[in-house]
Structure formats: structure tokens, C-alpha cells
């Protein structure tokens, strides 16, 4: 069976389910796309919890709008269109998600959340999951695009849709889509200088030995309460931010370490650590657990996502995880 006939068969089956009003089979067919739709919403919104909500909203809208499916496109394409517009509607209502001016583009995004690798689509080839398009730096850069321009960029340069298909999904002209994409590419080059910008090309998915070694050493330094050992893992030009706190972004290792020490880390009461190696956004990460005096358990304190360059940590994004067992991590160890 050819790809074209397969798409036709899928559409025909879906139309039959729609006409029959078979809610159970409709849910079964649409559910197989949950992971890739959720990742799409995450790229649009940079927030894991919001992406989950918008994916569920996509399925609700799909059911209520099921009669609008005419078989002109594959069910998957139709669902992506609904998901994209659900995210655009969400962004239109949220004043706190307005892109910051370009001169402030180095500031952190308080609403940014990590994305658990276990929830990534299982077939990277089919789902366009290149590592570079999941890493935090990419997700942050995309947020500085106006919402509709952001949607055009993701549909065209990440998912690889042709201009006509993206235009149809967003109810724009092909000329408008082409213009929006050109502007988006300029912004992305400004936000990610020196990074690979061919998002649809082959990409590495697995962590390197360097990355695995550095995250283990990072955890080891915490568990030994070894501040000097931790400093040795950091590049001088480290970029560090702790979210969701605002105003924490620093761009040198010295500033980051000074902030940690002045905040009490590695001091009595904040010096008994345990850690778990994990991955988020296809990046090495450490789940850090802290035991405070009088508490018998080590409790989840923070998740640290690391970008490793030449064996050292170039970017460290911390996420406050106190009181919220994120990513199915155990709340205590």
C-alpha cells in the first residue's frame, strides 16, 4: 500500500467513525496522536502543564467539530490544525505570555517548565522530534516570536509542512505565511547564535558520554557538599536561571555561585543532598533532593537541566520542585 493510499484509507475510516458518531472509536483513533500533539503544544506554550491542558482541549474540540472533517487532509493534519488554534486562542487570553521586547530577550521566562523525555513521541522520525527542537534554549527562543509567527515557524520549519498547508491551517495566505516565516527565522538566528538552524535535518537524540559524566559529577559534588568540585564543572560564561523566580538570570559562573552561597546553599541546613540522574527536553538533568535538620527524608528540591559544552556546564536552568513531584519523580528518597 502506498503512502497516499494509506492516508486515503485513514481518512475514509475516520469519516466513517465520524458519521457513525462512534465516540469510543473516535477517541481511540485520536488518542494515538496525543504525545506528538502535546509536544506541539509545548513548543507553542513552553509550559508542560498548559500543553497537557491544550492537548485535552484539542480532543474536546475535535469531537465537537468532527463533522468538519471532510477527508481533504489526514486526520493527523486536522488534529494539528485544531491544536495550533487552541494554543493561539490560549495565548490571546494570557497577558503574561506576551513576547518581551528583543532588547530584553535574555531575561528568563517564569512560566517555562521542563518536558519529561518519557512523554516524547515514540517515533522521532515520524514526529519530527529533533533534539535541538526540544532543548530549553530552542523552546525559550520560540517564545520571543509573536504567537501567529510562532505557529508558522513551528509548522513550517519544525514539522516541515509546505506553505500552502500551513496557510490553510492558520487561515492565512501563502504570502503571509512566507513573510512570517522569514521574520521568524531572523529572530531565531538572533536568539540562537552559533546554533544549528536546520531543524528538519538529522539530529542526535542520545546523550554523549561527556554529558552523562558531567551530570553524575554534578550530583556527586552536591552529595559531598563540594562547592569547589561544583565550580570546576562550570564554564566561566555560565548562563544560569532559577525558575519560576524572576530576576535570577546571570551570565557568569562567579555570579551564579555567589548567588547560591548568599542564598544559603551548601551552608548548614542546606548541605545534605541526594540526586537522581534523569533527562528532560533531551538534555541531561539532575533531580536534587535536600534533607533539612530534623527531617528523616530527602525531599525533592529542584530539577537542574544542563547544557554541556566540551565537558563543562554552559547553561544551567533550575526549576523549583519543592512540594510538587514533577515528571513522576519520587517526592522523597
Oligomer: single chain
Coarse morphology: globular
As for the CATH topology of the largest domain, it is Butyryl-CoA Dehydrogenase, subunit A, domain 3
> What is the CATH top level name of the largest domain?
Mainly Alpha
The sequence of SSEs as H and E is HHHHHHHHHHHHEHEEEE
Mean pLDDT across all residues, rounded?
A: 88
What about the largest sheet? Answer: 5 strands, mixed
Subunit structure: Interacts transiently with the RNA polymerase catalytic core formed by RpoA, RpoB, RpoC and RpoZ (2 alpha, 1 beta, 1 beta' and 1 omega subunit) to form the RNA polymerase holoenzyme that can initiate transcription.
Family: Belongs to the sigma-70 factor family. ECF subfamily.
Keywords: Sigma factor, Transcription, Transcription regulation
Domain RNA polymerase sigma factor 70 region 4 type: 138-187
Description:
With 333 residues, this protein is of the alpha+beta class. The protein folds into 2 domains: 3-191, Butyryl-CoA Dehydrogenase, subunit A, domain 3, CATH 1.20.140; 209-328, Nuclear Transport Factor 2, Chain: A (Roll), CATH 3.10.450. 46% of the residues lie in helices and 14% in strands. It is built from 13 helices and 5 strands. The chain has a 5-stranded mixed sheet with strand order 1-5-4-3-2, covered by helices on one side. Helix 3 packs across helix 4, helix 8 (147-158) runs antiparallel to helix 9 and helix 8 (147-158) crosses helix 10 (174-191). The longest helix has 19 residues, at 75-93. The protein is globular. The relative contact order is 0.10.
